[in-house]
TrEMBL record:
The gene is LOC115464601. Its cofactor is a divalent metal cation. Belongs to the HARBI1 family. GO terms for cellular component: cytoplasm; nucleus. This is Putative nuclease HARBI1. It comes from Microcaecilia unicolor. Keywords: Cytoplasm, Hydrolase, Metal-binding, Nuclease, Nucleus.
Length: 306
């Protein structure tokens, strides 16, 4: 960095910063070379930049942009037959639900929007948020995320206007379906639970559906436990809608990376209440027919022997 840039960012010269660092290094440097703690000089620079600008935005912006450019390497919906078969097998192991390519739902991420945009980001609980759609596999890996929609938008609207929703609607994934809650309305490619199951087969279908679909709830729990900035207990994010959307996407990417490296985490944040209303789509009848066929052909046989 040039001397001018250093003064602009930290309000102190290079020499002044090093002198200050040497005065306090015994208190802020890691105590052992094997530690993964942030180096003392880096800590000092971050604090000085906050003092100079009143925000961590500059530091966040550069790193966030760099991470966002590689999100496609870590979040992708499977298109290959072998990977799709693996995902179906993993979902089937949970509760015998066949042909599942993903569990889908939305979760709200609180933030403080610009004053002139408050109304579109106000959700049904009268808070301000982005309504974030995610699809996961049976191992809680996020396969697809849409993070740009305001909290006032319905889950089904987000799905049917997303790239993945359009691909399913166009029949690009004919050998599998998504599992969603009743708020979506049943589709030929999106199965929802029955409102009033009557037969034993219908009850088995519902039990299987609920047990299998809960993977997305667990995914949100792990995601928000790992990255508290996304949970309301961490407060409301103080960035623009676009930057909050990028933060969500990058956190999803880092979540997948943590799973890849087998980094477990305990879910310690409280569950969130669904705040989106039920939606009865125009093709619910056709979707219900698919569910009925599945129940008749697959769940009427009763449980398989162990």
């Amino acid at each position: 960095m040039s001397d001018r840039k250093i003064v602009d960012d930290y309000r102190l010269s290079r020499t002044a910063i090093y002198e200050l660092y040497h005065e306090i290094r015994d208190d802020i440097d890691p105590t052992t070379a094997r530690s993964h703690a942030v180096p003392g000089l880096v800590q000092l620079l971050i604090v000085l930049q906050f003092f100079a600008t009143g925000t961590f935005q500059q530091v966040l912006g550069g790193v966030l942009h760099a991470l966002k450019t590689c999100d496609h390497k870590h979040i992708s919906f499977p298109t290959g037959e072998e990977e799709q078969r693996r995902i179906k097998r993993d979902f089937h192991k949970i509760a015998r639900m066949p042909n599942v390519l993903g569990a889908i739902d939305c979760t709200h991420v609180a933030f403080t929007p610009p004053v002139d945009q408050e109304m579109q980001f106000r959700n049904r609980k009268m808070g301000y948020s982005l309504n974030v759609q995610a699809v996961c596999d049976a191992n809680l890996r996020i396969l697809d995320v849409v993070s740009r929609y305001p909290g006032s938008y319905h889950n089904s609207y987000i799905l049917f206007n997303s790239a993945l929703g359009k691909k399913f609607a166009e029949g690009q994934f004919r050998k599998g379906w998504l599992l969603g809650d009743a708020g979506y309305g049943s589709k030929t490619w999106l199965l929802t639970p029955l409102a009033t199951p009557r037969s034993e087969a219908e009850k088995r279908y519902n039990e299987s559906h609920i047990s299998t679909r809960c993977t997305i709830e667990r995914t949100f729990g792990v995601l928000k436990s790992r990255f508290r900035c996304l949970h309301i207990s961490g407060g409301s994010l103080q960035y623009s809608p676009d930057k909050v959307a990028d933060i969500v996407t990058v956190c999803c990417m880092l979540h997948n990376n943590a799973l890849k490296h087998h980094l477990a985490i305990e879910i310690v944040v409280p569950p969130e209440v669904n705040i989106t209303p039920l939606d009865r789509g125009s093709d619910v009848t056709r979707g219900n027919a698919v569910s009925c066929q599945l129940i008749q052909e697959y769940f009427s046989r009763g449980p398989e022997p162990v």
